[in-house]
Amino acid sequence: MREIGKLMEDLRSDNDRIRFAAFQVLLPMAREAPHKIYPWWDELTAMLEKPEVSNKYYGLCLIAQAVRADGENRFDRLLPHFYALLEHESPVVAPNAAGLSGIIVRAKPHLEKEVTARLLASEHTCRCRHRELYMAYVISAFDEYFDLVSDRQGVAEFVARQRDSSSPKTRKTARDFLKKSR
């Protein structure tokens, strides 16, 4: 296996193929052992600033995994910036920022109220080009941490409004969620 430092260097490459190859190795590593990538927190958060969608996506995915090793509460300070990406127009960035929320809330339950409020508000603030599909990612995130949700009624009402979505995936995700949460 390649050294993490080299993988992180490759992740910063201007070459998409090199970046993608590094991400393909780092993501499973981060899922299995988030403490291995946590020392590169600053480099991961810097990826959210880069203009390329792939950089933002890789950063989101790796940060969500690293949060599980975040004993210094660095994510607490990053939260506003991370969740500002819910308003990104990209059909990759915004849905994944929402969809990764289950991992984040499981790792940081004290942030549940703020994360839930931001996800609920995104129904009105979302600028994603595939808004209807985006809602499926929000519902999936709620599903991952519904046992921790403080505003269960607000979440249930949000999900109920998605039952008639123009997105087949969102309709199905909403109906499955509502069946399960009864």
What distance separates the N and C termini? Answer: 46 Å
Rounded mean pLDDT is 95
Number of helices: 11
Total number of domains: 2
The secondary-structure element order is HHHHHHHHHHH
> Low-confidence runs (pLDDT<50, min 5 residues)?
none
Number of strands: 0
How much of the sequence lies in strands comes to under 5%
Helix fraction?
55-70%
What Rg, in angstroms, do the CA atoms define?
16 Å
Bulk shape: globular
Biggest sheet, in brief?
none
Structural class: mainly alpha
Secondary-structure blueprint:
Layout: H1 4-11, H2 16-32, H3 41-47, H4 53-66, H5 74-84, H6 93-99, H7 101-107, H8 112-125, H9 131-145, H10 152-161, H11 168-181
Helix pairs in contact: 1-2, 2-4, 3-4, 6-9, 7-9, 9-11, 10-11
Task: Report on this structure.
The model has no long low-confidence stretch (mean pLDDT 95). Helix 1 crosses helix 2 (16-32) and helix 7 (101-107) runs parallel beside helix 9. With 182 residues, this protein is an all-alpha fold. The radius of gyration is 16 Å and the shape is globular. The chain is built from eleven helices and no strands. The protein folds into two domains: 1-72, Leucine-rich Repeat Variant (Alpha Horseshoe), CATH 1.25.10; 75-182.
Outline of the structure:
This protein is mostly helical.
Short descriptors:
182 residues; mainly alpha; Leucine-rich Repeat Variant; 11 helices
